[in-house]
Write a structure and sequence with these properties.
- The protein is α/β, with parallel strands linked by helices.
- The protein has a single domain (about 5-175), classed as Ribonuclease H-like superfamily/Ribonuclease H (Nucleotidyltransferase, domain 5), CATH 3.30.420.
- Helix content is about 40%, strand content about 15%.
- The protein contains six helices and five strands, in the order ββαβααββααα.
- It has a five-stranded mixed sheet with strand order 3-2-1-4-5.
- Helix 2 crosses helix 3 (about 80-90).
- The longest helix has 24 residues, at about 125-150.
- The protein is globular.
- The N and C termini lie far apart (about 60 Å).
């Protein structure tokens, strides 16, 4: 991080899910922002993420959270849908960033703003960690709401990830409009039934 440079951290949540949109967040934190608990959202409990989300939203100079739908994911693939969701989040920031930090190793340039891809960036940069937490908490909230309409898939617990129970529910009840049809939704049968 360069002193005095407005940097936006970007990250996504839900890339490996079988159902639901991919969510992405962009966050610009103040230079003097410190929070020891801020780390990779995957290492935190749901309760800790919720508390950090409040701190981030109260202290960020600006932030935005956007999505790409399962249809878009099926059309352009999950990687570019993740990038598209990040672009949407960046476009909705109240303050345009001077530099973009992206978690991962692939990105498409956004509006001539220089960017840096950082592998495991959520463990190295506060702004990426903050984006990771916002993307994850917003997505989890969305999947919990979706669970009310589709309780058979237990999205309240698995959030659309490929758990054994989720795959079994797809096999038993079929797909919903929220499933990503380009993904392998059920495991191929390994044994032949004679």
């Amino acid at each position: 991080m360069q002193p005095g440079r407005l940097e936006a951290g970007c990250d996504e949540a839900g890339r490996g899910c079988l159902a639901g949109p991919v969510f992405a967040a962009a966050v610009i934190l103040p230079e003097d922002f410190h929070c020891d608990a801020l780390n990779d959202s995957k290492q935190l409990s749901e309760k800790e993420r919720g508390e950090l989300r409040r701190i981030i939203e109260e202290n960020a100079l600006c932030y935005a959270v956007e999505t790409c739908s399962p249809e878009e994911i099926d059309e352009i693939n999950i990687l570019w849908a993740s990038v598209k969701a990040m672009h949407r989040a960046l476009a909705h920031l109240a303050i345009p960033p001077e530099h973009i930090l992206v978690d991962g190793n692939r990105f498409r340039p956004f509006e001539n703003i220089p960017h840096t891809c950082v592998i495991k960036g959520d463990a190295k940069y506060r702004s990426i960690a903050a984006a990771s937490i916002l993307a994850k908490t917003y997505r989890d909230e969305y999947m919990r709401q979706l669970h009310e309409k589709y309780p058979l898939y237990d999205w309240r617990r698995n959030k659309g990830y490929p758990t054994k129970a989720h795959r079994e529910a797809i096999r038993r009840y079929g797909v919903t409009p929220h499933h990503r049809r380009s993904f392998r939704l059920i495991e191929p049968q390994l044994t032949l039934d004679f």
